Amino acid sequence: MSDISTLFNKISSLAADVLNPDDIQHLTDIIERCDLTSTPPTQLQTEFGLDPITFNMQTALISIDEIGASRAMILSILLHEYVGRNLITEHDVERLFGHDVMQIIHGLMRVNQLNARTPSIESDNFRDLMLAFAEDMRVIFIIIADRVNLMRQIKERGTDQARRHIATEAATLYAPLAHKLGLYLIKSELEDLSLKYLETDVFYMIKEKLNATKAARDAYIRTFITPISDKLKAAGLHFHIKGRTKSIHSIWQKMKKQKCQFEGIYDLFAIRIILDSPPEREKQDCWQVYSIVTDMYRPNPKRLRDWLSMPKSNGYESLHTTVMGPEGKWVEVQIRTERMDNIAEHGLAAHWRYKGVKDTGARLEEWLADIRSALEAGPSSDEGLTQQFKVDLYSDDIFVFTPKGDLFKLPKGATVLDFAYAIHTNIGAHCSGGIVNGKNVSVRTKLQTGDQVEILTNPNQLPKQDWLSYAVTSKARSKIRQSINEQEMQSATFAKESIERKFHNKKIEYSEPVMMKTVKRLGYKHVMEFYKAISEEALSIERIIDVYIEEQKREAGELPPAETISASTYKLNPDVQNQSASMRDVLTIGEGIKGVEYTLARCCNPIYGDPVIGFVTVSRGITIHRKGCVNCRHLIEQMPYRAIDVTWAKKTNGQYAITLQIVGNDDVGIVNNITSIITKEKDVLLRGIDIRSSEDGLFSGTLTIMVSGDTRLNQLISKIKTVKGVKDVTR
After folding, report:
1. Cα(531)–Cα(355) distance, rounded to whole angstroms?
2. In the CATH scheme, what is the code of domain 409-482?
3. Residues sharing a CB contact under 8 Å with residue 473, sequence separation 6 or more, in sequence order
4. What is the DSSP letter of 652?
5. Quick check: 398 and 411 in contact, CB under 8 A?
6. Considering only CA atoms, which of 333, 406, 420, 339 is closest in space to residue 372?
7. Which side of the chain, N or C, has fewer Cβ within a 10 Å radius?
8. Is the pTM of this model over 0.70?
9. What is the pLDDT of residues 84-137, one digit of tens each?
10. For residues 213 and 12, what is the distance between their CA atoms, to the nearest angstrom?
């Protein structure tokens, strides 16, 4: 407890201006009352042997010293472990310390849950996801301080594998985050420590060489700055000069980029001239210093960077130049004021862009500029800045995981189908559904940040027109359109070949102009609609041949011209199906009936017992349709003289194919219950089943069966409807 007491007293002292006496007393009571040893150990304890209370207090000190943590941040660091282990309630935290503290603790707990998934940490999307999950940027500051604390303490702790894992995360996630937020010193330390654990030999080689050349480097810096210092003093300027050696990690990156040894790196340091100037004279004084420096040393005009006249959008202000110093060495000189230096070193206006860190977009820069302005208002306004700290940069995006932990960024509103296409076009094209967080869902289900999604595919599944109504990503929509167009072209080619083959077999001369008139005569505005109707069996080739022959005769003058009938000008004729049977012949069909050539229409699949009607074709005899069949009505409206009444024979032993549409609750076992009923039925054969999940926990699908007639079918439908969870069954 002595270490805990010492650390707690230090926190109380350093944060005396933000923590009130009640905060100190409540914290003391909680630490004394709650025993963390009674709860399961954390990763810190199991892998590195670190005490969580001591560790969190050290993190709080780093946040105070190096980040400038607020009251809410300090309290959240010290309390989140107790809340996460259910040793104190959220209600108690909010009652004792306020809603703002509990809000940050929620963010910390969400990020901890995210880290537990251990996805591909190198992904840029993971950084964005952490920002989205944190909701409050103060959470990001805390986890960066937490990682700095951990990196400082694991040198002699844990396994080499555990240290390398932590170091890799620091280099790929936390260091770039620190850089984006302007925590340049922390960023450099994280990079150096990562190099120390990942490439130990390189780290100590560069460190030893820097130590060996330190005296010579310091001497050179003194030689360089002494005349500048004299001139600045003579000009009446108030200033101080720092010679900053580049970080070990930065030197190693230069060595790799330039493909040279340590001795080949000449720009190992930069000179920073920091002025104590009033706001109204900042630019004037900086340019005066620039004039003095470039009068003494020859500048490289290509290396001038003026962020005084035009500050970066993230608020960074400084004047950079590179000059030729003594011994022919190039030296970088940075000129800025105390205010500018403070923001650049510790504020949110980091100079990460010119260092080559990948930008995540203008929104981040604008947000950083807003936060910078808020911070400059002073510590007293911290509690009123909660909304400015809210992270809404990625509110238009969602982040989802694959079962293996890979991360994908999608636009808000994206569905399972969008995710499938994001993985691979072929997976999207054959997507039949998904499993989201362990639950079966349809392709149209919208995803949420943090969802774990597994894509289900079916080799027989192809993109459909209605997919465009719920796909939102440009990739998915373009690929769906492309696939649909390809399918239509293939169907059209097949349909056209079928027509030409049939014409050839019947020795009918094929004429494109006559065929175009036939298409219009049949009521199709576009030839692709015509071919689609053929491929979907909504239009028979026999029907086409009938109309084609009529058009041929009109071309030859054997028949008078006829007006082309379009789909928009159809007028229903009197219902031929309801005419008195006594006025027409009645055809009897069924097993054992001979001398009659007929076929059952595939568009409506009539079965024994259905009310039916016949349509006389030119070459295939009579086609039998169910009364009410849309395709049959279309034919009869144009040629009512070809309709014929049909009745079934009294007895039949035939089997008829029928397709049932079924809708029900998406429950485990319901499909098995349905198929079990069918297989137990006498004279009923199950030929195929296609079940698809949909939204709202429902499924829909089709059952293809063989039955002896409508009576048997109706009995089967009634039994299926009794299955628990089945909503509807229709033909």
Report:
1. 60
2. 3.10.20.30
3. 410, 411, 414, 418, 421, 422
4. -
5. yes
6. 339
7. N
8. no
9. 888 899 999 999 999 889 989 988 888 877 776 654 555 566 666 676 666 677
10. 42
